[in-house]
Design brief:
The complex is a heterotrimer.
Chain A lengths: L22 H6 L4 H29 L10 H36 L7 H20 L27 H28 L12 H32 L13 H18 L2 H15 L6 H14 L15 H13 L1 H15 L8 H24 L1 H7 L3 H31 L5 H28 L13 H29 L38
Helix pairs in contact in A: 2-3, 2-4, 2-16, 3-4, 3-5, 3-14, 4-5, 5-6, 6-7, 6-8, 6-9, 8-11, 8-12, 8-14, 9-11, 12-14, 12-15, 14-15, 15-16
Chain B lengths: L1 H19 L1 H9 L14 H34 L15 H29 L7 E8 L2 E6 L5 E4 L5 H4 L17 E4 L4 E7 L4 E5 L4 E5 L5 E5 L5 E7 L11 E7 L1 H26 L5 H20 L17 H4 L2 H10 L15 H13 L11 H9 L2
Parallel strand pairs in B: 1-5, 4-10
Antiparallel strand pairs in B: 1-2, 2-3, 5-8, 6-7, 6-9, 9-10
Chain C lengths: L16 H25 L5 H28 L5 H40 L6 H7 L26 H25 L2 H33 L6 H33 L9 H26 L1
Helix pairs in contact in C: 1-2, 3-7, 3-8, 5-6, 5-8, 6-7, 7-8
Classes of the chains: A mainly alpha, B alpha+beta, C mainly alpha.
The complex binds heme-A (HEA) (2 copies), dinuclear copper ion and copper (II) ion.
One heme-A sits at the interface of chains A and B.
């Protein structure tokens, strides 16, 4: 990959600084991509803590057999809302926040293409989650049917607050679609002269493809919740056999959204890792072009594998076979990515700053999660794995040590650029090592309890699972506490404590964003830089 | 709810106290010796093949992981800056790229072939020796032997006190049922799996059978068990509040034992019918009705309407103080006998005897301060069902 | 790309409208949720007030936002590059709408090709039919459900056919309006566009007639099994889009009358006409899959 370098540096931006509006209005009315990025990131972090607190309730209840802390119905609400919040409230907004901060700086644009819509799509989110969370406090409680809300548990057999759940998902979806359109249009239209497609940083590429996935599948989710709404309240029978419908049809529609959704949560992560590894290897990314093609193939394949979540629903054999084979195929392009990262490190000159530590942990732990995914894809064995903690282990490896770790890596990598100060490295190292150890204590034993036969979504379990669950819970609490270190570090960073950093920040970092001063001025690239 | 949060928090702090007292706890858990790390081999040919396939997959994955991580750690160790490594500048190689696209592809084919074969075997439920219809409902299983007319419900037998931590937990905690499914060994038993309400999944790990029970549709699965024994499983699809309390127990017997068991069952059913007829003409006293009623209530209704009759607001209605339980007796009988279509309230006509229904209705009309003094008799139920 | 293409970027200043839009969606979501619960469960509540407040806020916000936008556009602040952004944004928005309809078309295909035949015993579901629905026969349109609800199938001749013609014609008139705009002939634009709006209204009117007919004479309702479900959801969401489209065209008409839009600068007009064509294409799909087949 040819590293983009800009021709003229901007000495002139300082006189724009006085445009920065003050007070609460700055945040409510902002059209600045950096402000909006910050809002997204803080929102995501708050949601991560909220969803994490719910995970703590889950882990506390599962600490030992028997019902100690919560009633089963409340437990189900915790599981459901934990899943929803982490997926829609933490990971997706965090990636959108990063996109907002970085894409304009990386392609040499002054801002996102549609700045006002950008503000709109952010501010919908807090409202959507207020609705979702407030339903927990209403009569009957919040959603208790799993984040996958299978009908008819979510229709005929759910409580009436389901209506609020449905509409909150609608507006969340609207927010994601607007965000995605903004990213696409920005990348198509706002690249600096000379920033050709194959010079675009990989983070930009992966986000572009992610954005396409988003606009393709979020509307389908909206359709799914709409049908849930009418089935529950208006007497339709999409998911009711007596009226000629089929509960399994819900699952097809949901997973047509749901599977691409999980790649929405990992493709930007791939982009981040592809930015970080070359920097700290001091060597260009290996196989830039093949990375782009691999990402595209993953995205395309993701549309034809959805029913691997449904092997036990009684599909005909040929359908099971098709979805098994298609799912297995995804390992090939994903493998290409992993191999390319390793090849980038090969014969490099490696150093292990905090972003790199997280990136390396990502590569190892995501691969573990990916390989267990591959095992899940094998239909005959998935009959045993399905809906057990083996699946829970799989998706937390790809989501927590995958998506979340990549987000943390990204935050550490670009934070000095955002604030102009180096973060507290000691705290960061503590955060990394505590997280790394505890996250494995938390999620690794889940493989074993899963194989031994512990179903997921249960508030109480048989005695043979007791030992492992205790360790899992301990790991969980430790991982949760480790995130408080991160919180402390971020607060410190936002109060602009620390050593000032240079424009490049990291020796070896290349790309447009490293050529503008740190902290990045409020307005960058009012006239486009020329990329050679 | 606010207070629920507070309660939850205070209980959580208890758990944290427990964590600190870890060493002491470790002991109490070790008495369960049979914990396992890996998938079960099970007791059918299929389940063994599944196990083998699982191990094959697992080993391939471990080898791949070892290769990738090996290379990575090598680079991390030998190509680090602090050791003076100078970066190379290569960033492309078509040959390597092709290699690591093609080789994984070949590995995948190696995995796919046995998987496809096994899948075809598993899905072939033709020509069974015996067919059993398995119906899930919130939160119990119903088994119906299609050829013998024997049918019954099977539900969790663990005492609530064990769950709440008041009694010591037994060995088969949460994995025990009142009436297990009984099947013969060495016979191809076909299960027709469906549901009365939400989706459940019938899962017995030892048979490598897990099939969703979809309302309105029938899925099939089969097992040919090689050894007599007791096999335990659980519902494997979130099905509401008590999803975690919906175990499955299957007893596999030799053909001879199985046949005598079926004989007994037929007898029991016949006797129960006769008994029911006899009881129709008898009247319970209030005390009898209340004691039986309480038992029936705790076993069948308390899961939703709660032991204290207060239900779960917004989810399951309270019976304590409910208009139906206080005033409208015919409506009360109707709800219990025929259920409420399209809600979680099932029809109990198939599940309980008339006496039990009469008793439980009586109980509901007189417990928790519902002092109606109404006494419902089996013949009232009979009148509701058969229109007398 | 050549240097001179790079005019100065336009980055709008702070704006209160998006945040107000978020508030509007919040009120709409809360209101709609409560209205649904209250109307179907016969409860009392404030749902409808919240919903109306949401609509009011939304309309207010749209007016404010568009007024700003129009003002900026008319005062020549926009660059060609921004015009491209708007057009692409609109195109992808329409794509997302296509996917929304795809979910319901998916449900239609699934019900028709899989769920109903399976209930009738096809594929690996022989026992489903024998044990659970012994008297059910698979058919499409599903005029008798497994649960025993009966209804009638909507024929494609008559109203639906007229509606197809109306909508196709309106697409042509809309296009003519665009052609006229490119030639800069304002009177012609007004004529063609006005005609399009009228055709849109006519379509909605006929659709309402059809619904009344279905409900009162055919026993075809939203509740009559998956045939009625897919029928009403697809035509209903389409009808909703036609209504919105007609409103958009009406506003465009007013703006043309006020002298807005030039040959070069008419993004709003183009977006509106794209939207209209999209609504039209969806109808053709609908006519084919819902009515004819
Ligand atoms: C970020 C999210 C994410 C990602 C990236 C993935 C990636 C994958 N997932 Fe996962 N998955 C989830 C999130 C994710 N998943 C979630 C949330 C669920 C549960 C949903 C729910 O029910 O609640 C789930 C569930 C799930 C199931 C259903 C399990 C069940 O319920 O029974 C299956 C089954 O096939 C599956 C498969 C896969 C596969 C094959 C991949 C592949 O993409 C992985 C590819 C990667 C590798 C294979 C590793 C690297 C490759 C190499 C080193 C190359 C060499 C290797 C070979 C060629 C073998 N996943
Ligand atoms: C990105 C997504 C994401 C993330 C980050 C996580 C993070 C975590 N998850 Fe989650 N999880 C899901 C997505 C995610 N999960 C999904 C989709 C499901 C399926 C839901 C369903 O079945 O429908 C699920 C389900 C799920 C289960 C299974 C529940 C069940 O089946 O019954 C469990 C059980 O242990 C669990 C645990 C955890 C834990 C301990 C963390 C930890 O990583 C969280 C750590 C973070 C914190 C703890 C917050 C920070 C700290 C504080 C706020 C201070 C307080 C700290 C203490 C009190 C110690 N998750
Ligand atoms: Cu039945 Cu879970
Ligand atoms: Cu998937």
């Amino acid at each position: 990959m040819n590293t983009p370098t800009s021709e003229h540096h901007h000495e002139s931006h300082d006189h724009h600084e006085h445009h920065i509006p003050k007070g609460i209005k700055r945040w409510l009315y902002t059209t600045n991509h950096k402000d909006i990025g910050t809002l997204y990131l803080w929102f995501a972090f708050i949601m991560f803590l909220t969803g994490g607190a719910m995970a703590m309730v889950i882990r506390a209840e599962l600490f030992q057999p028997g019902l100690q802390i919560v009633e089963p119905n409340f437990f189900n609400q915790m599981t459901t809302v934990h899943g929803l919040i982490m997926v829609f409230g933490a990971v997706m907004p965090a990636f959108t926040g990063l996109a907002n901060w970085l894409i304009p700086m990386m392609i040499g644009a002054p801002d996102m293409a549609l700045p006002r819509m950008n503000n709109w799509s952010f501010w919908i989110l807090p409202f959507a989650f207020i609705i979702l969370l407030s339903s927990l406090f209403m009569e009957g409680g919040g959603p208790a049917f799993g984040w996958t809300f299978y009908a008819p548990l979510s229709t005929t057999y759910s409580n009436d607050t389901t209506a609020l759940f449905v509409f909150s998902v609608h507006i969340m979806g609207a927010s994601s679609i607007m965000g995605a359109i903004n990213v696409i249009v920005t990348i198509f239209n706002m690249r600096a002269p000379g920033m050709t497609w194959m010079k675009m940083p990989l983070f930009v590429w992966t986000w572009l493809i992610t954005a396409f996935l988003l606009i393709a599948v979020m509307p389908v989710l909206a359709g799914a919740v709409t049908m849930v709404l009418t089935d529950k309240f208006f007497g339709t029978s999409f998911f009711d056999a007596a009226g000629g419908g089929d509960p399994v049809m819900f699952q097809h529609i949901f997973w047509f959204f749901g599977h691409p959704e999980v790649y929405i949560m990992i493709l930007p992560a791939f982009g981040i890792i592809s930015q970080i590894v070359p920097t700290f290897s001091r060597k260009p990314l290996f196989g830039y072009a093949s990375m782009v093609y691999a990402t595209t193939s993953i995205a395309l394949l993701s549309f034809i594998v959805w029913a691997h979540h449904m092997f036990t629903t009684g599909m005909p054999v040929f359908a099971e076979m098709f979805f098994m084979l298609a799912t297995m195929l995804i390992s090939v392009p994903t493998g290409v990515k992993v191999f390319n990262w390793v090849a980038t490190m090969w014969r490099g000159s490696l150093s292990f700053e905090v972003p790199m530590l997280f990136a390396l942990a990502f590569i190892v732990l995501f691969t573990i999660g990916g390989l267990s995914g591959l095992m899940l894809a094998i239909t005959p064995v998935d009959f045993q794995y399905h809906d057990t903690y083996f699946v829970v282990a799989h998706f937390h490896y790809v989501l927590v040590t995958g998506a979340i770790f990549s987000i943390m890596a990204a935050v550490y990598y670009w934070l000095p650029k955002w604030t102009g100060k180096m973060f507290d490295i000691t705290l960061a190292k503590w955060h990394f090592w505590c997280s790394l150890v505890s996250v494995n204590v938390l999620f690794f034993p889940m493989h074993f309890v899963g194989l031994a036969g512990m179903p997921r979504r249960i508030p109480d379990y048989a005695l043979q699972f007791a030992d492992f669950n205790k360790w899992i819970s301990i790991g969980g609490f430790a991982f949760g506490l480790s995130q408080l270190i991160f919180l402390a570090l971020l607060i410190k960073a936002c109060r602009k404590k620390g050593e000032p950093v240079s424009a490049q920040v990291w020796e070896g970092a290349e790309g447009l964003e490293w050529e503008i001063p740190s902290p990045a001025p409020y307005h960058t690239f009012e006239t486009p830089p020329v990329v050679k | 709810m606010g207070c629920r949060v507070k309660r939850t928090l205070s209980k959580m702090s208890l758990v944290f106290a427990n964590v600190l007292a870890l060493p002491a706890l470790a002991e109490s858990a070790t008495k369960v010796e049979q914990y396992q790390l890996n998938l079960t081999k099970g007791v059918t040919d299929i389940s063994e093949k599944v196990y083998d396939l699982h191990m094959l997959m697992f080993i391939i994955c471990v080898v791949i992981a070892a290769g990738v991580f090996g290379a990575m750690f090598w680079a991390m160790w030998f190509h680090r800056k602090s050791k003076g490594a100078k970066p190379a500048n290569f960033h492309e190689s078509i040959k390597v790229e092709i290699a690591w696209t093609v080789i994984p592809f070949i590995i995948l084919i190696v995995m796919a072939v046995p998987a496809a074969k096994l899948l075809i075997d598993m899905e072939d439920a033709n020509q069974p020796d015996l067919t059993i219809q398995v119906t899930g409902s919130q939160w119990k299983w119903h088994y119906k032997y299609m050829d013998d007319g024997v049918e019954y419900f099977s539900k969790l037998a663990t005492q609530p006190e064990q769950i709440q931590g008041k009694f010591e937990k037994g060995h088969n905690y949460l994995l025990e049922v009142d009436r297990p499914l009984v099947i013969p060994i060495d016979k191809k038993v076909r299960f027709l799996i469906t549901s009365d309400d939400v989706i459940h999944a019938w899962w017995v790990p030892d048979f490598a059978v897990k099939q969703d029970a979809n309302p309105g549709f029938i899925n099939d699965a089969w097992a040919k068990v090689n050894e007599p024994g007791i096999y335990r499983g659980q519902c494997a699809e979130l099905c509401g509040k008590d999803h975690g309390f919906m175990p499955i127990v299957v007893i596999a017997k030799t053909q001879a034992d199985y046949e005598s068991w079926i004989g007994e069952q037929k007898d029991i059913i016949a006797k129960a019918k006769a008994e029911e007829q006899r009881l129709l003409s008898m009247n319970m006293t209030m005390d009898e009705a209340m004691t039986t009623g309480e038992k029936v209530y705790m076993a069948n209704c308390a899961a939703c309407h709660m032991p204290n009759g207060e239900g779960l607001p917004g989810v399951f209605p309270a019976l304590k103080g409910s208009q139906i339980a206080l005033k409208d007796q015919p409506a009360h009988i109707d709800r219990v006998v025929f259920g409420v279509a399209g809600t979680a309230m099932q029809a109990y006509a198939k599940q309980l005897s008339m006496t039990d229904m009469a008793a439980v209705i009586t109980y509901e009309r007189n417990a928790w301060g519902n002092n109606t003094n109404d006494l419902v008799q089996a013949k009232d139920i009979n009148a509701a069902i058969n229109g007398k | 790309m050549s240097e001179k293409e790079y005019e100065k970027y336009y980055v709008p200043a702070q704006s209160p409208w998006p945040f107000m839009g978020a508030c509007a969606l919040f009120l709409l979501a809360v209101g709609a949720g409560n209205v649904v619960i209250e109307t179907t469960r016969g409860k009392e509540g404030f749902g409808s007030y919240i919903l109306i407040a949401g609509f009011a806020t939304l309309v207010f916000m749209l007016f404010g936002w568009f007024r700003n936008q129009i003002h900026e556009s008319m005062s020549g602040l926009y660059s060609e590059q921004l015009g491209r952004s708007y057009r692409q944004g609109m195109a992808w928005f329409i794509f997302s709408e296509v996917m929304f309809f795809a979910a319901f078309f998916g449900a239609l295909f699934y019900a028709r090709a899989i769920a109903v035949p399976w209930l009738g015993g096809a594929s690996n579901n022989q026992m489903t039919n024998e044990v659970l629905w012994p008297s059910f026969q698979a058919m499409w349109p599903l005029v008798e459900t497994p649960g025993g609800i009966t209804t009638e199938a909507m024929p494609w001749t008559g109203l639906p056919l007229y509606n197809t013609i109306i909508l196709l014609a309106s697409s042509v008139t809309c296009h003519m309006a665009h052609v006229a705009l490119e030639k800069g002939k304002r009177q012609q634009i007004l004529g063609w566009l006005g005609l399009t709006v009228l055709l849109g209204c006519l379509f909605v009117f006929m659709q309402v007639e059809e619904y009344i007919h279905a409900y009162t004479e055919m026993g075809l309702t939203l509740q009559s099994g998956v045939y009625g479900n897919t029928f009403f959801m697809l035509t209903g969401f389409h009808g909703f889009h036609v209504t919105v489209g007609t409103l958009i065209l009406l506003i465009l008409w007013l703006r043309v009358a006020k002298g807005h839009f030039t040959k070069e600068n008419h993004f709003a007009f183009q977006a509106g006409s794209w939207y209209w064509h999209f609504v039209d294409v969806v109808w053709v799909m609908l006519f084919f899959f819902v009515y004819i087949l």
